[in-house]
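To: structure subgroup
Subject: Chain for Friday's discussion

All,

I'm putting the inputs and outputs inline so they're searchable in the archive.
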Amino acid sequence: MQSVNAAALPSFSTSRFRAEREADWIAFDLLLTKLEKRGAKALTSEELLELPILYRATLSSLSIARATSLDKALLDHLEALSIRGYFLVYGVRESRLSRIRRFFLYDWPAAVRSVWIETIIIALIITLGALTSWSLVAHNPEWYFNFVPEELAGGRDPRASVEFLKSTIGHGKAPAAEEQSGLHMFAAFLFTHNSGVSIMSFALGFAFGVPTMMLEYYQGISLGAMLAVFTGKGLGTDFGGWLFIHGTTELFAAALSGAAGLRIGAAVVFPGARGRLEAAADAGRTAGKVMVGVILMLLVAGLLEGFGRQLITDTLLRYGIGTLMLLFWLAYYYIPRREDVA
């Protein structure tokens, strides 16, 4: 008789256990669901006070269930409910708007600041590329066509007259319709070219950073060649203004993309105490944040190139806008700020 009662006891205990406590589990589950869908503002004052009480009651039920070896389905349910409760009661809940705000105010600038050495290196490489092509074209104009495709130059080459070159940068008589078409093609070519090189510079960073540095050097080639043409015609200052209005943003973005790729390449070459994959993954997280910002900067540069440069023809104003954009990016990235609790 005693053995029969002992065999029946676990089943009776489980049923009684559920009957006594299941109401608390259901209430806790409903509060968690409301909290997940609509946030803490959806809960009344009474529900907010009840939440930690129900959480502790669920933990108590889980402890008893583990100690008495109740059925696995019930144990799994209580464990899942307890984990949800922990993250919602004690975890930091951040809204999507708050995460976006944190990225723009802190995460993106911090990532850019962390690659400042790589940024300087890439900026020097771009400058070296521009100086190389400028020197070659200045001494032998035929070199120009090795750096800029003739069909996309829009007539801006060493054979063009001063009047025509002035017209293509918003000074003097406006070029004819077919020449304007060439001008727009060349502007689109420059933006597409620079954007593509920027993305490739980042993507190929894992190859020890070598392709990144080569692409960034190539980034400066077309710039230097074009600068040599306009400088040779006495239009270097005007061309600089035409380029400056969007170039400070676009070239800054190019330098940052190369810096992101170089950070990954450096992590692969010099992983330190970590494994190469671990070091590259860690560098990739920082580089990824930088690249999100680079894409946004390229969009801004595209707007400045497509509208500002065409609508604003005064050279001093172009330099002013380009300088303001450069100062904005420098201040945004490099002025220290204390992170608040959002």
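Points worth raising on Friday:
Confidence is low (pLDDT under 50) at residues 1-12, 174-180.
The two ends are 66 Å apart (CA to CA).

D.
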